[in-house]
């Protein structure tokens, strides 16, 4: 009997290391088109009420420089420094990812996830704002040929169904014992094992996956 294998990607769209890992994760998915990929949002700073002051901005810029050096990912530093009274709450953007997969079950969630990453890190958009997220999410879904609107997206994002589903992702993240983002797990016939924690390369992941796939 053939075994079923699934790759579980645990991340947060506003996590800089997850953003740096974006190209690697896409490369993995493209090189193994038959591999099922489950995207789990981790809620890195979900529910945070802390204002992003100058010290916190500088701290993030230091991280961004390391991510940029490791991955080549491009960051919009000016947009970060220009933010006023910004609360780094990642719950809304995580919920937006869950909204996308809820209203469009056949959507490539990874592509939507990356659209939110680009919006925050490159375009400098406020990915804590529900209306902004609805515009980004609806456009990312529409780009895959699935019809929806920002109004439909926003309404779904505030529903009990999506709020509860987002919390279940956070709970799964805790149950998996995730210590850092991004984290990769592989599930084979219901049994889950960790592949990596933190930034890694597609080549390293592929090397670990190939014997398991065989």
UniProtKB/TrEMBL annotation:
The lineage of its organism: Bacteria, Pseudomonadati, Pseudomonadota, Betaproteobacteria, Burkholderiales. It holds the Pfam family DSBA. Residues 7-198 form the DSBA-like thioredoxin domain. Keywords: Plasmid. The keyword Transferase does not apply. One of its GO terms (molecular function) is oxidoreductase activity. This is DSBA-like thioredoxin domain-containing protein. It comes from Paraburkholderia phymatum (strain DSM 17167 / CIP 108236 / LMG 21445 / STM815). Coiled coil: none annotated. InterPro entries: DSBA-like_thioredoxin_dom (IPR001853), Thioredoxin-like_sf (IPR036249). The keyword Transmembrane helix does not apply. Gene3D superfamilies: Glutaredoxin, putative protein disulfide isomerase domain.
